[in-house]
Amino acid sequence: MTPDEPVFRVRVEAATLDDLRSAVDDLEPDLGCRAVARAEGDGFAIDVYLPGSRLATTRSATVTVLADETENGLARQAEVGRDNRFAARGEVPRGLGLKE
Question: Would you list the domain boundaries of the chain?
Fold first, then answer.
């Protein structure tokens, strides 16, 4: 994976847990600290993170793109200002952060 390669959140679905394990082993995804397979429909699914170069569908599972997390991250970064929110005395900070 290159540093500028987009990362996607995807759902990997398979008919059996063994097929799902095999697909996850093939794809080598980032499981995001929540490697929990769940029953969905007639099979099993897990949400993982994959770089764009590994979006190929495996033989034993279906891969569905849920979100472009690189694009989402860049959009969140655009919401963050570069100024010191606490520089002006007596003024309440503004923005997305928690106001206490």
Answer: 9-78
Predicted TM-score (pTM) of this structure: 0.71
Model confidence at 10: pLDDT above 70: yes
Of the pLDDT bands very low, low, confident and very high (cuts 50, 70, 90), residue 92 is: confident
pLDDT of residue 8: 94
Q: Kindly report the CATH number that applies to the domain delimited by 9-78.
A: 3.30.70
Cα separation, 50 vs 63, in Å, equals: 10
* DSSP codes, 18-75: HHHHHHHHHH--B-TT----EEETTEEEEEEEEEGGG-PPPTT-EEEEEEEHHHHHHH
